[in-house]
Amino acid sequence: MAAWCRQCAEGKPLFVATYAVVFGGIVLSALFLLSTLYSSSSPSSSSGDNPFLAFGARLSSSSPSSSPALPPHEDSVVTGKTKEISEGSPNVTKYTPSVSAVNRSSAPALQPKHMLTRAIWEVPVDSKLPALKAFRLTKEMVKHRAKDNVIIVTFGNYAFMDFILTWVKHLTDLNVFNLLVGAMDVKLLEALYWKGIPVFDMGSNMITDDAGWGSPTFHKMGREKVFLINALLPFGYELLMCDTDMVWLKNPLPYLARFPDADVLTSSDQVIPTVTDDSLESWKEVTGAYNIGIFHWRPTDPAIRLAKEWRELLLANEKLWDQSGFNDLVHKVLGPSVEGENELVYAYDGTLKLGILPASIFCSGHTFFVQAVHQQLRLEPYAVHTTFQYAGTEGKRHRLREGMLFFDQPSYYDSPGGFLTFSPSIPKSLLLDGAHNIESHFSLVNYQIKQVRTALAVASLLNRTLVMPPLWCRLDRMWFGHPGILEGTLTKQPFLCPMDHIFEVNVMLKDFPEAEFGPRIEFREYSFLQNPLVPKQVKESLLEVQLCDDHRTKCTVANETIKNGFLRFPKNSTQQMLMRVFSSYKDFRVLRFSSMLDIFQGFADAAREAKFRNRVKRYVGLWCCVQFRTPGHIYYDMYWDEKPSWKPEPPQTSEEDHPPW
């Protein structure tokens, strides 16, 4: 080596070049040999062995030979892609082309991952939807989504798309990924697939529109749940079945695992607490119906027998409500308690072990939004189900929005014309003084209704979206006569009541003809501006508007300048002044008024006011109900203050039983 180096130093280039060529040839030959050996040991790349080209093959748990081969697990290396783990979501992966794949035009096209193993929220790279038969529910599909032998399932049609996305996001935010969604129509199936949601076809051929509560379509959806339970339990997995109008706030699986001997754990409509901790309800004290919006099944013989008989019962009686059928069956035998178990009870045929989930933490719409039982007992809620509400699907959505539990599209959190909000004014005497009765309740609510009416008018004139104020009630609302609040509940008086207790949320969202009802008035829930999903630039683009007496010199708008986002505005202004002044502040995303009392004199255009009245008088609902009266409900009136003889009384005759319009 030393001699060779001396030759180099002495300037013999021909000799050095010869050695370099020989050495390079040896290296290239070795690399070629290794490449050949590696290629001969690699799996065949023919289309017959490619699981993605066989994606449309029929899935069948009973015929393994007909099932498509599965791709490598998510942790395997994927050619041409780099893997990134989303922070806080270890099972959510996203793939981006590697540098080498991007730079080489001859690189093969990226292969789509199989839908059974693709991470949730990972958008498919397929250019075409797989064949519909690939979405059939099979044991293999459940196997690849289950964890610790548990699968969580919900289902619905396209009308509940946003509920389903919210349901999935809450679970994945809790790092729970063992879920499946059943699609009752192809439109929903396609939409969920392209969003990366694990979905299966229920073959229901359901309409894509909302199925109103109690409608024939609603009953059909309920029956599909029973059929689905019967299809899933024989696969041998524990099943947590959920309605789409509920959300998870805490991972429920560790809680459910505390009761391994339970065949079925069900939620209920219980509104009176039977326990004050996180144990199961005391079954002997439960008087509310068992609610099948949240319940957990184990694939035991008693549970499978119950599911089968439940299905047969519904098939024999097409008018029977699915929840009523379940309650009838489990109450055939109820008792005694299972020895040594925490509030499990023998039910159904005397062999099924049943537990009732505590309504304080597996909350109904009443225990969460009205009583706030979890707060009063200092417990952490696992779930909330939007029951006990009065405005249909729109009311359910609004309840979740009020609780900042709903995930809307980004456009919801901004508005082209901006927002309008105000500080409600409620005298202490109306809110706190005196007895809690029908008269004091309506005095309190009517005072708030008048302010909302004015705010709706101002929002309409300024083309802004109204952020509703929080609403206070003295009396609860139910479907039947009661003494004001239900005895034994933890309902406080007064309490912050959901908007659907007073206003017809579903009606406010309807598209009325503008020629008859004037322009649509957009609105948001009272908690909107506290929602972390509202962009910072919206919240900070705020103009505070302080109402002042117009006879004071400092209240002259012409002399007013904006300082620190603050503006004085005279009370009892005209429509023209209102529109002229605030047309200069359109760039502010939020106008926050100090009050809505006496803010302006009313509409200048009689025709516009008539349309506005025609619209908003439909916005209020009713209170229910006076005990021992038929009918016992009392209608709210948007213009109660214009009727000196108005009193909060139920209709005296059937002819009087209608809204005040």
TrEMBL record:
Keywords: Membrane, Transmembrane, Transmembrane helix. One of its GO terms (molecular function) is arabinosyltransferase activity. Residues 178-400 form the Nucleotide-diphospho-sugar transferase domain. Residues 72-86 have a biased composition (Basic and acidic residues). Pfam families: Nucleotid_trans (PF03407). It comes from the Eukaryota. Residues 62-94 are annotated as: Disordered. GO terms for cellular component: Golgi apparatus. InterPro entries: Glycosyltransferase_77 (IPR053250), Nucl-diP-sugar_transferase (IPR005069). The keyword Transmembrane helix applies. GO terms for biological process: cell wall pectin biosynthetic process. This is Arabinosyltransferase XEG113 isoform X2. It comes from Ananas comosus (Pineapple).
